[in-house]
Design goal:
By secondary structure, this protein is of the alpha+beta class. Helices cover about 25% and strands about 20% of the residues. The strands form three sheets. A three-stranded mixed β-sheet has the order 1-5-4. The radius of gyration is 16 Å and the shape is globular. About 25% of the residues are buried.
């Protein structure tokens, strides 16, 4: 008889994804994360050096946003404006192992935009990171920093693919 180990996942900062998403769907409001506000202070330690940052939701950046376009690939990542080449390398490594990215991006199909059920979208995502010997679940809203309408975080070749920018935002939080 086989034995399955239970993997405990800790909610970062006490934020429970399913509870927050349910509250947003019931209220009809998109999630805005009070613990990672859409401000320069969430991006910079010592002042903004990249220009005026405007936080936008993916639907404000393209008509048909997706977490993934034609799957996940290590080859479709580009560095953002925050000097994050180390993060692009980590994401590329993550993208090359499906068993890993499915742990970091849990329930990805459930988190994907659903064009047939737009009312099921709440502007909330969650990602998991292995931190200090345990999995930590990090909740974020979908507001992404832009300068001149270009993503500040790392981004894909496809202008409507947002998994890498969302993972970077969760990691920054």
């Amino acid at each position: 008889m086989g034995c399955r180990m239970f993997t405990y996942v800790k909610a970062f900062d006490g934020q429970q994804y399913s509870t927050l998403k349910r509250q947003c769907l019931q209220s009809g409001l998109l999630f805005e994360d009070p613990r990672f506000p859409a401000t320069d202070d969430s991006l910079f330690y010592q002042g903004n050096r990249i220009g005026r940052v405007v936080w936008k939701r993916p639907r404000e950046l393209c008509e048909d946003p997706h977490l993934f376009v034609d799957g996940i690939s290590a080859h479709d990542l580009h560095q953002g404006q925050l000097g994050n080449c180390w993060f692009v390398a980590a994401c590329s490594s993550l993208a090359s192992r499906e068993s890993l990215w499915q742990k970091v991006i849990p329930d990805w199909k459930e988190q994907e935009w659903d064009t047939e059920r737009p009312e099921s979208y709440a502007g909330i995502f969650h990602f998991r990171f292995w931190r200090f010997g345990e999995w930590v679940d990090v909740v974020i809203d979908d507001r992404l920093p832009t300068v001149d309408n270009q993503l500040v975080y790392c981004h894909s070749d496809d202008s409507n693919e947002f998994w890498s920018a969302m993972v970077e935002k969760a990691y920054a939080k």
